[in-house]
Amino acid sequence: MTLLVDTHSHTVASTHAYSTVHEYAVQAKLKGMQMFSLTEHGPSMPDSPHPWHFGNRHVLPRFVDGVAILRAIEANIMPVNGGHDIPNGLHPFLDFAIASFHEPVFTPAGKAQNTQAMITTIETGDIQIIGHPGNPNFPIDIGEVIRAAKDNNVVLEVNNSSFKGSRSGSGPICKQVLEMTDQLDWKVVFSSDAHVAYDIGNDASSRACAEEVGFPLERIVNRDAHHFVAFLAQHNKSVATELQDWLGAL
Known about the structure:
By secondary structure, this protein is α/β, with parallel strands linked by helices.
């Protein structure tokens, strides 16, 4: 299957990715997707775009051939105690925010420190999604993180690229994330983390993992545009109001 809503992708604005916004829009339309998200890296990453990039995305159309485009960011969890690197003035320009551990920014630490940094980031109230928490380089107490996420209406991501070598060894941890999320009565997002347009919407490995553990698909927040926009509305994101007419026509 293909995701109807993809919450994580990178364009040529992040220089280790290879496709333009237009190329993503074309592929999303061909695959029958409803929505995808532009989530370039936050400013602490070496190849992050200039902050003006995020502030200027109002020039992008909200829709291309009926596919909605969300304007977001993959922020960095900051050393040593957590938090993120989203500049204060940038929040009004973002439809949502992911926060993730990245080795060039946060040197991998022990489980207790990683867990506390992630929870501190969740508790800022500025983040809606925790990116690729299955990275084995950053061990965490999965249960503690999910409990904190649930308390703050934040969801963990099951990142399809993590199964394909980007973060080798993530598969078993992603499985644990799904199992623990179900046990704790919470939710996740599935994402492609595409770095080339042909990969947009790809959740094949994540879907297979979910089927293996019997994870209920109704716990996937971005299973369709209606549910993901409702999640953004819970975070008082103005894009949720902006998209109401479009949702009504789906």
